Amino acid sequence: MLRSLRPLLEPVVLPHWWQDALLLLPRVVCGYLLTAEFGAAKFGLPWSPPDNNLGLFEVAFWFPNDVAEYGGIFALLPAFFAWMGAFSEAVGGLLLLAGLGTRVSAFLLSCTMLVAIFMQQLPQGMWNTLPAAGFLWVSLMALVLGSGRFGLDYLLARWLSRRPTAPAAAPGRPAAALLLLPLLALLLPGCVQPAHDKTVVYLLNVSGHGPVKQVGLRGRDKPLSWEQDLVLTPVVPDSLYRAVVTTYTGYRTTEVKFTLNGDFELAGADNRRIEFGLGDTVTYRARLGVAQ
């Protein structure tokens, strides 16, 4: 069984070691970015951001909804395709980095990047496709060449080549294993991060900031956005303003900034970070222009 995997694992070794070393660089950089940045933000791994509140191998609550917007078969099985896409980035990126199962991970990444390019990024303009296109080119290179001599596949293929030839496996066993794959494909995407409605009551003091035409709130999570104000209601004109925002989320925190007459507060500073806590509602009191 293991020896049958050797053609899939065995990399193409270039004539000189420095040629393999040169191709190692894009493989390691892309693998690291995929598993540590892009994938870990939406797929639960030990190094996923704690604020994202992802369990091990959970896909972020928002990702299936994004995938469903692609339409067609993606709308029929959004959790499956979201889980597979996030898995290919997070775990496939790690395998690409290590040079283990390089061709399999490269194939999954190629499929994921093609979907990202044509279903998500290309409609927003050609320049938006550049990150996914870069990962795609590296994945296609790894799909053809494998890990090169600087990867675990190279060591594993050499070990398999030294093993004595084993008796042929019973024909029913590989077939039975293949029959389990569709079942696993349907069960694993059930690991979608649970999400709930979280409400934040914002109370903002703007005293001492001159004439107030409009006080707004912008943020990371829907229904807020960074492009448009949610207008706060005056409790005491030119002094105290209020807004109540309910967000459907699985995260532990959200990020916001207030605006005064269309201008952001705390220019150049970090966003305000609000922890939801264990309850459904939290009150956030702040003073305009004063970080907390």
Brief overview, please?
This protein is an alpha+beta fold and 292 residues long. The protein has helices spanning 6-9, 17-38, 63-68, 73-76, 78-98, 102-121, 130-145, 152-162, 172-187, and strands at residues 196-205, 215-219, 230-231, 233-236, 240-249, 253-260, 263-264, 272-275, 281-287.
Architecture overview:
The chain has 292 residues and is α+β, with helices and mostly antiparallel strands. It folds into 2 domains: 3-190, no CATH class; 196-287, Immunoglobulin-like. The protein is 41% helix and 18% strand. The chain has 9 helices and 9 strands. The chain has helices spanning 6-9, 17-38, 63-68, 73-76, 78-98, 102-121, 130-145, 152-162, 172-187; strands at 196-205, 215-219, 230-231, 233-236, 240-249, 253-260, 263-264, 272-275, 281-287. Strands 2, 3, 6, 7 and 8 form a 5-stranded antiparallel sheet that branches. The model has no long low-confidence stretch (mean pLDDT 90). It is a multi-pass membrane protein. The chain crosses the membrane at residues 73-97, 104-122, 134-156.
- What's the SSE pattern? HHHHHHHHHEEEEEEEEE
Shape: elongated
What count of structural domains? Answer: 2
How many H/I helices?
A: 9
Counting DSSP E segments of at least 2 residues, the number of strands comes to 9
Name the poorly predicted regions.
Answer: none
Strand content: 15-25%
Main sheet record: 5 strands, antiparallel
Rg calc? 25 Å
The average pLDDT score comes to 90
Multimerization state: single chain
Main location: membrane
Transmembrane segments: 73-97, 104-122, 134-156
Family: Belongs to the DoxX family.
InterPro entries: DoxX (IPR032808), DoxX-like_oxidoreductase (IPR051907)
